[in-house]
Write a structure and sequence with these properties.
The complex is a heterodimer.
Chain A (H helix, E strand, L loop, with lengths): L3 H6 L9 H20 L5 H26 L5 H40 L9 H6 L13 H6 L24 H24 L3 H31 L8 H35 L8 H26 L1
Chain B lengths: L18 H5 L3 H29 L10 H36 L7 H20 L25 H28 L12 H32 L13 H18 L2 H15 L6 H14 L15 H29 L8 H24 L1 H7 L3 H31 L5 H27 L14 H30 L37
Helix pairs in contact in B: 2-3, 2-4, 2-15, 3-5, 3-13, 4-5, 5-6, 6-7, 6-8, 6-9, 8-10, 8-11, 8-13, 9-10, 10-11, 11-13, 11-14, 13-14, 13-15, 14-15
Classes of the chains: A mainly alpha, B mainly alpha.
The structure holds protoporphyrin IX containing FE (HEM) and copper (II) ion.
The site of copper (II) ion has 4 residues of chain B, from helix 7.
């Protein structure tokens, strides 16, 4: 037999569990269902799968929370969570890297080459294929449009999202979005400091503010999208500009939403269940790292999609 | 932490029945699941390869129309890479890493189980396209746009890839966390066994590039169904962009499929030469530099798309630089064998064959890396020969070597050595008869990915097909040998091989269900 102290030193290896395979099955439904939905074969499977995914995830996390409340997580296990979260964020960085890479390639290589520059047979693409295409960024007239005019399938946007005159600065949504998101990074930090001082009230307050800012951001983003579709003639189909604009900001927005929900969960844990101590609050820390990551992505977006 | 190893009955052994396998959190169970899944995929992908070689046995169209042929080629590639080689290495990682670093299990056991079960989910989606109108994807495993965006059922393909990617990323996070956080006291990084090192680097590569693949398939999906213009010049995009993104994933991916093989080979060669590995730390540095370099060579797959001269030169030289760390590894293996007291058990035979045949693949890679030469070789059977030499007698041989080497540890029984050797020789002959002639037809100009070919290539293609059937059939022997060893055989000792070193050889054979619940002390 072993001594009590040894049990606590031992790394916690959970007993067998039915959650992972249920989750895998839910993922199967989501994947298959999403493909069904996209190809016009009905959306039921997708919805069932989504509900199953959210349900199993919530259940899974509640178990982890219970285990940590029961003191099963040694410092070493906590360390595993820390490393795990850090590498997960790295994978997210690489996902955005692909889309930023696409943006840079299109802006610096694809568009100029379509306009007649390029390494092989100088001007070939420009002269033979798209003689009238103007290689500017953002391309308000797509190559196809430069050839076919109104008959083109892929037409450029009527307006773009750049700031056109300094006088519009006050009503320029991206700026407000930047302010909102940057301050939320600050408030989440203040909340963290408060938690380290064990000041629960202040922690809940500042975390609450952060969550509110997160959702304000999402709403502003929705307004921006509405404006784009309703008034600016800028859609997902407006050539590469619309493509890169909506894909980059869209994936970022999705991450804001996820991060916001992540933070909200931590707020509820703290406010309703009094989880976390000044030393142990990994759930919150993970959420705040994720939040800072989302913030950094936005700063890149702000520069490369809205300003430069 | 206590250094005394205590006995404890707190943990029970495995549960009974099928639920054990469905719900398990045990790294050995999950490793076994991965390995059997991978074997099933090898058989599936292998059956497709037999179909391909049967069609190519003689010129003309005999067995299938070109569309079916393309589907077989595509699915063969996807299944072998994502279903065969990668899961086999993850299975080995699961079995071995916790034992080799002295950890009780993988760091995140439930996520480990999820990583595995996502794979059957993904392949269910991918293979279900076979029963749909429009059929399986037939655009090649590289799914270049705009061919792929115009294909039916690409949505199913995309989500299958997404799920495989999630599985890989979670599996890799588990590996890294286990290695960084769960090593026994005294096991410093430089004392870590090379298989562990190789997987640490592989996992890093996977986490870096699987999300890029996810990005690529997402863009594809958006172009195909939502009217975006990433890869469509009419809207200002560029099909070549797809190739850049794909190969930014694709080249590190090929190293993902070979680095664990480097680790395995190092263990086996050292054991059966009864010498410590020559240049342990230089092996580590070589793998690290291969991993770093693998991010800056991707465009050697696209020499013919029309890049600026500076880019052609950069990617040519960068690619050739990789030959240096690769050469270091090969020389180290040879130096380890040199003056060793060598015996040729089956794992050693596979390992030696690995060194020789992988090196042949490396040399043809160097030929392909020479830009002007590649203008000639690109998209011919020479490329097919190259990557099959690095992947079949490379990655796949190393997996088989690993299975023979560690099987006694897993099952407690020795495999049938005579049969093992027979399996080796049949595979060795089969693989060379299959793929060596493909160098010839490739250099003579036979293009890849066609169901038919010119008469001048007929002889070597017939030879190649015969070799392929031999190789394919020999793998049934492998199945037989493994199954037999699971149920019966001479009992293995804890050490198994008299030259074997490392923590996994200090525990009983078969390894107890739970090992190292209390970490062992690693000495000097
Ligand atoms: C010395 C090391 C290597 C060099 C210099 C090298 C070079 C190359 C080059 C230049 C190509 C492109 C040929 C073309 O399409 O025209 C190529 C293709 C390929 N290589 Fe390698 N290679 C090396 C090692 C490896 C390894 C270790 C693997 C995998 C384990 C590998 C797997 C592949 C694959 C799968 C392809 C073909 C991809 C496709 O088009 O379907 N190579 N290699
Ligand atoms: Cu490559």
């Amino acid at each position: 037999m072993e001594s009590k102290s040894n049990i606590h030193q031992k790394y916690y290896v959970p007993e067998q569990s039915s959650i992972p395979i249920i989750f895998a099955f839910a993922a199967l439904l989501v994947g298959f269902g999403a493909a069904n939905a996209i190809t016009g074969n009905g959306t039921i499977m997708l919805w069932v799968g989504m509900i199953a995914v959210v349900g199993t995830l919530a259940f899974w996390w509640s178990i982890i929370t219970k285990e940590s409340q029961a003191g099963l997580d040694t410092p070493q296990l906590n360390n595993s969570y820390v490393y795990g979260m850090a590498w997960f964020i790295f994978s997210e960085v690489m996902f955005f890297f692909a889309f930023f890479g696409a943006l840079f390639y299109i802006r610096n290589i694809a568009i100029p080459w379509l306009g007649g520059e390029g390494p092989t047979a100088k001007g070939l693409a420009g002269e033979l294929l798209w003689p009238d295409f103007e290689p500017t960024w953002p391309p308000m007239i797509t190559p196809e449009q430069s050839l076919l005019g109104e008959n083109a399938v892929t037409k450029g946007p009527a307006e773009n999202m750049y700031l056109h005159s300094i006088r519009d600065l006050g009503t320029w949504l991206p700026l407000w979005n930047t302010i909102v998101l940057l301050s939320s990074s600050a408030t989440v930090h203040v909340a963290h400091l408060a938690l380290k001082e064990n000041n629960r009230k202040r922690f809940n307050f500042w975390l609450g503010i952060t969550v509110a800012l997160a959702f304000i951001f999402v709403i502003l983003q929705a307004v921006e999208y509405y404006e784009a579709y309703a008034h600016l003639g800028l859609t997902l189909n407006s050539g590469v500009y619309g493509t890169t604009f909506f894909m980059l900001t869209g994936f970022h927005g999705m991450h804001v939403l996820i991060g916001g929900i992540f933070l909200l969960t931590q707020l509820m844990r703290s406010a309703n269940y009094n989880h976390f101590t000044d030393k142990e609050h990994f759930g919150f820390e993970a959420a705040s790292w994720y939040w800072h990551f989302v913030d950094v992505v936005w700063v890149c977006l702000f520069f490369f999609v809205y300003i430069l | 932490m206590s250094a005394v190893i205590e006995k404890h009955d707190h943990h029970h052994g495995p549960q009974k029945g099928v639920l054990r396998w469905l719900f398990t959190t045990n790294h050995k169970d999950i490793g076994t699941l991965y390995l059997w899944f991978s074997f099933l995929m090898f058989l599936t992908g292998g059956a497709m390869a037999m179909g391909i070689r049967a069609e190519l046995f003689e010129p003309g169209l005999q067995l299938m129309d070109p569309i079916r042929y393309n589907q077989l080629v595509t699915m063969h590639g996807l299944i072998m890479i994502f279903g065969g080689v990668m899961p086999a290495f993850v299975g080995l990682a699961n079995w071995l890493i916790p034992m080799q670093v002295g950890a009780p299990d993988m760091a995140l056991p439930r996520m480990n189980n999820l990583s595995f079960w996502l794979l059957p989910a993904a392949f269910t989606i991918l293979l279900s396209t076979a029963f749909m109108e429009g059929g399986m994807p037939g655009f090649g495993w590289t799914f270049y746009a705009p061919l792929s965006t115009n294909y039916p059922n690409i949505a199913y393909f995309v989500f299958a890839i997404h799920i495989m990617g999630i599985s890989s990323i979670m599996g890799s996070i588990n590996v890294i966390v286990t290695i960084m956080n769960m090593r026994a006291p005294g096991m410093t990084l430089m004392k870590m066994p090379l298989f562990v090192w190789s997987w640490l680097i592989t996992a890093y590569l996977l986490i870096a590039v699987m999300p890029v693949l996810a990005g690529a398939v997402t863009m594809l999906l958006m172009d195909a169904y939502f009217g975006t213009s990433f890869f469509d010049a009419a809207g200002g995009g560029d099909p070549v962009l797809f190739q850049h993104i794909f190969w930014f994933f694709g080249h590190p991916e090929v190293y993902i499929m070979i680095l664990p093989a480097f680790g395995i080979t190092s263990h086996i060669i050292s054991t059966f030469s009864r010498k410590p590995l020559f240049g342990h730390s230089s092996m580590v540095y070589a793998m690290v530099s291969i991993a770093v370099l693998s991010f800056v060579v991707w465009a050697h797959h696209m020499f013919t798309v029309g890049m600026p001269l500076a880019a052609e030169l950069f990617f040519m030289w960068a690619t050739m630089v990789i030959a240096i760390p690769t050469g270091v590894k090969v020389f180290n293996w040879v130096a380890t064998i040199f003056k060793g007291s060598i015996t040729y058990e089956t794992p050693m035979l596979f390992a030696i064959a690995f060194v020789v045949l992988f090196t042949i693949g490396g040399f043809s890679g160097l030929m392909l890396a020479i830009t002007p030469a590649d203008f000639q070789y690109h998209d011919t059977y020479f490329v097919v020969a190259h990557f099959h030499y690095v992947l079949v007698p490379g990655a796949v041989f190393s997996i088989m070597a690993a299975v023979y080497y560690w099987l006694p540890k897993w099952t407690g029984n020795m495999y049938d050595e005579k049969m093992g050797k027979l399996h080796f020789w049949l595979s060795f002959i089969g693989v060379n008869v299959t793929f060596f002639p493909q160098h010839f037809v490739g250099l003579a100009g036979m293009p890849r990915r066609y169901a038919d070919y010119a008469l001048q290539f007929a002889e070597w293609n017939a030879v190649s097909s015969v070799g392929a059937f031999l190789f394919g059939l020999s793998q049934l022997l492998f199945l037989y040998i493994v199954v037999k060893a699971v149920f019966a055989g001479k009992k293995a000792t804890a050490q198994v091989w008299d030259g074997a070193r490392g923590l996994e050889w200090t525990v009983d054979s078969p390894a107890p269900y739970h090992t190292f619940e209390i970490p062992p002390k690693v000495k000097g």
